[in-house]
Write a structure and sequence with these properties.
It is a single chain. With 354 residues, the protein is an alpha/beta fold. It contains 13 helices and seven strands. It starts with a strand and ends in a 12-residue tail after the last helix. The structure holds adenosine-5'-triphosphate and magnesium ion. Adenosine-5'-triphosphate binds next to α2. The site of adenosine-5'-triphosphate has 19 residues, from α2.
Amino acid sequence: MTLTADPTIGIARNPAVDSTLAQAQRVVTGDRPTGPLHLGHYIGTLANRVRLQNQGIGVCIVIADYQVITDRDAAGPLRDRVRNLVAEYLAAGIDPDRSIIFPHSLVPALNQLMLPFLSLVSEAELHRNPTVKAESLASRRSMSALLLTYPVHQAADILALRGTLVPVGQDQLPHIELTRLLARRFNDRYGSVFAEPRALLTRAPAVLGTDGARMSKTRGNTIPLGATEDETVAKIRAARTDSLRHITFDAHARPQVANLLLVIAELTGVEPAAVADEISGGGAALLKQRAAEVINESLRGVRRRRLELLADPTYLDGVLLDGVLQARTVADSTLQRVRQAMGMDYLCVQGDPA
Ligand code: ATP
Ligand code: MG
């Protein structure tokens, strides 16, 4: 395997995976059904999921429905949002014959794993998580215990499904660190059950939205995957850049310009500095025009397939139900191993998985 990973932090970028070793890997990742997917998802994680699937690695996508209420009062219109997510995954290239997609709430073993995992982490450690702190601040409400512990749910999802590779955006890195810590602590205390998964980042792990902050559904600064071409042009035209005339690639000094260059680079495979050279004196107007063209060209097929898939909700629900059955099989057997390792398998109910 030619993963270029830093073993201390468990991050790899754009890995190429040897086909014989692909069998030993499993991708587990997910999204909250809080709204439609956006360009940040597509570039930051979805493209990696599809690429890894196409290299022969099993991909599990968890639709984290309970996590919607970490920072809001109600779960919202879940049926439509979840169907929309499935349509967008499939339109982007996730193949339901090779990958599984399921809603978290339908796989109860995931929640059972929370209890032993919660015993392995201190309250102070949970409070130190920078992403949880930022999400709590953005929600403008006091932090719920569900928000404080959500990285532990996420760890339970990844470890229950025996994930080894987790394609995510930058905001998720503290959670993957915690997942690795929990796996290590569990193994040290009860014997070796879990592998330590690694986060996979793309070159654009935090795509910025039209207001210059990280693109996220909650901030309302997104370019939705399903936007029309005209909407995309208008949103990109309104995106923040800076007042310097010449376009150059400098991620620190010129983050918004660098963001558009990275978006173009990720979608075309050209280096961002080369894209900058090409646009150069054309300034922000040409950069935006080029970005909108590239986004629209890259997403044209995805958008067409998305609409076709949305017209068949029965098929989309079938994909989810299939995914639930497969996820339950894996998660139940992991829970069984956990209970054995902890010495909690002292009584067996007839009909339960042995
Ligand atoms: P919400 O605002 O409801 O939290 P979100 O836009 O942050 O929504 P999530 O469902 O929380 O999206 O994130 C799903 C996955 O997509 C995570 O792996 C996350 O890191 C990744 N992701 C989300 N936004 C971006 C972004 N702007 N750039 C790169 N990756 C992203
Ligand atoms: Mg989020």
